[in-house]
Design a protein that fits this description.
The protein is α/β, with parallel strands linked by helices and 224 residues long. The protein folds into 2 domains: 149 residues, P-loop containing nucleotide triphosphate hydrolases (Rossmann fold), CATH 3.40.50; 66 residues, no CATH class. The protein is 33% helix and 27% strand. It has 7 helices and 10 strands. A 6-stranded mixed sheet has the order 6-7-8-3-9-10, with helices on both faces. It has a 4-stranded antiparallel sheet with strand order 2-1-4-5, with helices on one face. The longest helix is centred in the last third of the chain and has 16 residues. 40% of the residues are buried. The structure holds adenosine-5'-triphosphate and magnesium ion. The site of magnesium ion has 3 residues, from helix 1.
Length: 224
């Protein structure tokens, strides 16, 4: 599903990734950990094509992104859901519209849109909040809306960059449990986090970055 070969990412005067080699199979759940500045967000940006590698190859599915014309980037992005620490919801839109707008341009009927939004709201346990605005929700609820939005298009891959970074332990646990359920539906999930307790609780594959390099990659691992 994801392959990185000898990936180097050099920002102007900062080497953010150095000789990163990585293979993630379809259906895996992977935690990406490492101290601040280790390169976690940069690695994820390689995958959702926010940044391009300076050297090396990145494959998403069987597509080598090096040969991908800019015009095809939106199509590839539609194959992945992305979740951020700060939710990035549209403040003046309802929960329903925040999710529905992702699939409104796909030419499906409004009935089908309704059914899909309802379906993902059920997955994240917010079926009663469709009419609420983001400001009327707790942080944990807002993050669950952003997960619903990320999966409404049925993507094979979900990328979450510190999804629990702004949440307390209880809400963090709820969000991680939803991500695990999403994974159990067959979606490959990659989660960056600083949350030792979550990583130690879930015992998934753990990849550790340090100064732009992968220094550890273990199955059913712990944070350190
Ligand atoms: N656009 C940019 N231009 C220059 N340097 C950058 C840019 N983005 C990130 N960096 C640098 O690259 C390094 C890796 O940053 P990155 O955001 O990937 O780290 P991170 O592991 O996600 O950290 P955090 O845990 O704080 O989110 C850092 O030293 C950062 O300052
Ligand atoms: Mg980051």
């Amino acid at each position: 599903m994801i392959v990185l070969k000898d990936v180097i990412k050099q920002y102007k005067n900062k080497l953010a990734l150095y000789n990163v080699n990585l293979r993630i199979k379809a259906g895996e759940f992977v935690f990406l950990v490492g101290s601040s500045g280790a390169g976690k967000s940069t690695l994820m940006k390689m995958l959702y094509l926010e940044e391009r590698p300076t050297r090396g190859q990145v494959y998403i599915g069987n597509i080598n992104i090096e040969n991908l014309p800019a015009s095809k980037i939106p199509t590839l992005r539609r194959c992945m859901g992305i979740v951020f620490q700060d939710y990035k919801l549209l403040p003046n839109h309802t929960v329903y519209d925040n999710i529905a707008y992702v699939i409104r341009t796909l030419g499906i009927s409004s009935k089908e849109i309704q059914a899909r939004v309802k379906g993902v709201l059920n997955v994240v346990g917010l079926q009663d909040k469709a009419k609420a605005r983001p400001s009327e929700l707790s942080g944990g609820e807002q993050q669950r809306v952003s997960i619903a939005r990320a999966i409404v298009n049925g993507p094979p891959l979900l990328i979450a960059d510190e999804p629990t970074g702004n949440l307390d332990p209880k809400n963090s646990m709820e969000v991680m449990e939803i991500l695990e359920q999403v994974n159990q539906r067959g979606i490959t999930v990659l989660v960056s986090t600083h949350d030792h307790a979550m990583v130690n609780y879930f015992r998934k594959r753990v990849i550790t970055l340090d100064k732009g390099q992968i220094i550890r990659d273990v199955q059913a691992g712990t944070y350190d």
